[in-house]
Design goal:
This protein is of the alpha/beta class and 665 residues long. The chain contains 17 helices and 28 strands. The chain is globular and about 75 Å long. Among the domains are: 177 residues, TIM Barrel; 202 residues, Class I glutamine amidotransferase (GATase) domain (Rossmann fold, 3-Layer(aba) Sandwich), CATH 3.40.50.880; 55 residues, Immunoglobulin-like. The strands form 5 sheets. The chain has a 9-stranded parallel β-sheet with strand order 5-4-3-2-1-9-8-7-6, with helices on one face. The chain has a 9-stranded mixed β-sheet with strand order 12-11-13-14-21-20-19-16-17, sandwiched between helices. A 6-stranded antiparallel β-sheet has the order 10-22-23-28-25-26, covered by helices on one side. α5 runs parallel beside α8. Bound molecules: alpha-D-galactopyranose and zinc ion (ZN). Zinc ion binds next to α6.
Length: 665
């Protein structure tokens, strides 16, 4: 991609052909370069089994091509036609309690079902053969948002598939019994054939079985992606294959995107603002950083976001003037090679007619349309940033398997939420203007001066070795409570907690002491500083670590709350209670000082400054989420206004500026 992409989902089948001409004319006016087509079109493309109607899609793809607009062509396998289900009712997914879901929305799929696999292969082959050499096709969009709305099915064919998966993962059923701890509550299995999915049980089910089922369900979805991808690679070589992720932890919790990132040719992501009262631009930045990280730092593409409100939350506020551009360019700053939306033209019918679009019901005489056209022009001006890479200051460790394990029932406190810890630590780093890469706990961390572990309940031996080596070799580590507790089978590491991290942290935890709802504790630190914490406290026993903050009240009064341990050539910090993002500030500032990181001083926390660098130069994105003008120290040419910024760039309230630096910093 020599330029950045701009566009959205295009669903021409919802409109008479007479509208298509106006669509492409307006797409050109807005600067659209690529649209996603055909994602839900199976019932139109194959109206009866084995009988195909590609005429309308031929005309759409040709029309787009004639107008210089590229196509991200969908395989429609997220929406099998009604005739398919009438022939194969067992392809409908079954919930934990045995309910079979019905046709009539989308994504109602048992991914183990062989009839579904065969039928989806056939339609994919047809599309690959027909459009694989069409010059408009830039990319394949397989399925849609795997994992949502159904992430796991509990039917009989899934049970059989699960047994096959277990037989491949474990040597023998005795190994399963050991790993799952079936000696507890008399759950021992005599053979693989006896094992079922973790269906609804009278009281809490086996946690390790549930954890393995999440792994199995994720792997099963991935099998289906890989099956379609391989068909496309074989029949339509040279066209990159993707499927749209939803890395935001609040939007999809069922896929291990580290594993998915390795399977796609290009990582693409969908992101929607969750308007729950928190700072939506921080959640957006986190999702974008996580997406770049699952892409291994390589360029990725924002395939969907919204121009204004969505329609699937309880309350769906419109975006404020300028907010769309800040959102779109916020993704670009963090590595996206463009900005695409759901969707091009707002629907009149169906479930999403109140979801905003590039071309709203109000038409072109509207604020949204004017802002879309301005954004299209801005994206064109940003062509030089294509293929450059975002520069990160620190790493945050994240692992979906650890999250799944942490989210199981009967833990010391239901108020401890791994995602919330990740959000808050991320927010604290964001507020210090530090750009974050996410990393898998077993990844090479040597490039990062600072590594933060917000919630890593499950930590393997390999993770323990990795973090030990990282600190020994001079790294600075910050670990939050209830991390390093269990192994990959949810079995507590031998000895005192946190078994995986005792030595590197220089401490043990004698007992957890979670706080009651609404309860808080005070902790005191350097120079008489005080903070309030909640949710969690524990009895920390230093074994080499020094106490930096101390509990002032509660059961743990007088005990260490935050510790620091010199280990090898590095330092490991431990935070044993829940601090808000603001409360984490002083702790992370001290750790940053150990790491030799100098947070960008003097900027309000809601001014985002992110750097992309590469062969075409170094680009500083300054995104001003405040109403007031700020000056950002970046000298060079500003790409959106074309003005020189010899003494730093002035960024008006609510605006975005992108400076190509005169010299690399
Ligand atoms: C998802 C889907 C789209 C659409 C949007 C609406 O991202 O992929 O088809 O439903 O949500 O927000
Ligand atoms: Zn099933």
């Amino acid at each position: 991609m020599a330029r950045l992409a701009f566009g959205g989902d295009y669903n021409p089948e919802q409109w008479p052909e007479s509208v298509w001409q106006e669509d492409v004319r307006l797409m050109r006016e807005a600067g659209v370069t690529m649209v996603s087509v055909g994602i839900f079109s199976w019932a139109l493309l194959e109206p009866a089994p084995g009988s195909y109607d590609f005429g309308w899609l031929d005309r759409v793809v040709d029309l787009l091509h004639d107008n210089g607009i590229g196509v991200d062509l969908g395989t429609p396998t997220v929406a099998p036609p009604k005739w398919f289900y009438d022939r194969h009712p067992d392809a409908l997914p079954v919930t934990e309690d045995g309910t079979r879901l019905a046709f009539g929305s989308r994504g109602a799929i048992c991914h183990s079902n062989q009839a579904y696999r065969d039928a989806s292969s056939r339609i994919t082959e047809q599309l690959a053969r027909r459009y694989g050499t069409h010059p408009a096709v830039r990319m394949w969009h397989v399925h849609n948002e795997y994992g949502v709305p159904v992430s796991a099915c509990y039917c009989e064919s899934c049970a059989a598939h699960f047994r096959r998966w277990l037989a491949a993962a474990y040597e023998s059923v005795e190994d399963v019994n050991h790993a799952w701890g079936t000696a507890f509550w008399g759950q021992r299995y005599g053979s693989f054939a006896e094992i079922d999915p973790p269906r609804l049980t009278p009281t809490v089910g086996n946690p390790a079985q549930k954890l393995d089922y999440r792994r199995f369900a994720d792997a099963t979805l991935r099998e289906n992606f890989v099956r379609e991808r391989d068909i496309l690679h074989r029949l339509a070589p040279g066209i990159p294959v993707t499927t749209n992720f939803m890395t935001a932890l609040s939007q999809c919790d069922s896929l291990d995107y580290w594993a998915w990132g390795r399977e796609v040719d290009l990582v693409t992501n969908d992101h929607y603002l969750i308007t729950d009262g928190r700072r939506t631009h921080v959640n957006l930045a986190m999702a974008a950083d996580l997406t770049r990280s699952v892409a291994g730092g390589a360029p990725w593409l924002l395939l969907e976001h919204s121009t204004s409100g969505v329609n699937w939350q309880a309350r769906n506020p419109a975006k404020a003037p300028g907010q769309m551009a800040r959102n779109s360019l916020g993704h670009v700053a963090r590595g996206s090679e463009g900005a695409l939306f759901f969707q091009w033209r707002q629907s009149r019918r169906g479930a999403e007619k109140f979801h905003s679009a590039m071309l709203p019901h109000a038409g072109t005489d509207s604020r949204v349309w004017r802002e879309v056209c301005e954004l299209g022009a801005a994206v064109r001006e940003l062509a030089p940033v294509a293929q450059t890479r975002t520069v990160a200051d620190a790493a945050v460790l994240w692992d979906w398997h650890a999250w799944w394990a942490q989210s199981l029932e009967w833990r010391p406190s239901e108020d401890h939420d791994a995602r919330e810890r990740a959000d808050s630590f991320y927010e604290a780093l964001y507020d210090h203007h530090l750009t974050v890469d996410f990393a898998h706990p077993e990844a090479d961390l040597s490039a990062y001066p600072l590594v933060v572990v917000p919630a890593l309940y499950l930590a393997t031996e390999a993770t323990a070795r990795n973090l030990r080596a990282y600190v020994e070799n001079g790294g600075t580590l910050v670990v939050s409570y209830f991390s390093g507790i269990v192994d990959e089978h949810d079995a507590v590491h031998p000895g005192a907690c946190p078994g995986a991290f005792r030595d590197v942290l220089g401490l043990t935890v004698e007992e957890f002491s979670p706080l009651l709802a609404g309860e808080s504790v005070r902790i005191s630190g350097p120079e008489g500083a005080e903070l309030t914490a909640d949710v969690w406290s524990e009895f920390v026993v230093p074994r080499g670590a020094e106490t930096v903050w101390t509990y002032e009240d509660g059961l743990t009064a007088g005990r260490p709350a935050v510790t620091r341990h010199s280990f090898g050539r590095g330092t490991a910090w431990y935070v044993s209670t829940r601090l808000s993002a603001a409360g984490l500030g002083p702790v992370l500032a001290a750790a940053s000082a150990d790491a030799g990181i100098d947070p960008r001083p003097g900027l309000p926390r809601d001014v985002e400054v992110v750097t992309r660098t590469g062969a075409t130069g170094t680009f500083v994105f300054a995104i001003n989420h405040t109403p007031d003008e700020v000056k950002v120290p970046a000298r060079g040419v500003e790409l959106l206004t074309g003005e020189r910024a010899p003494a730093g760039v002035a960024v008006p309230g609510g605006a975005v500026r992108v400076v190509r630096l005169d010299e690399a910093p």
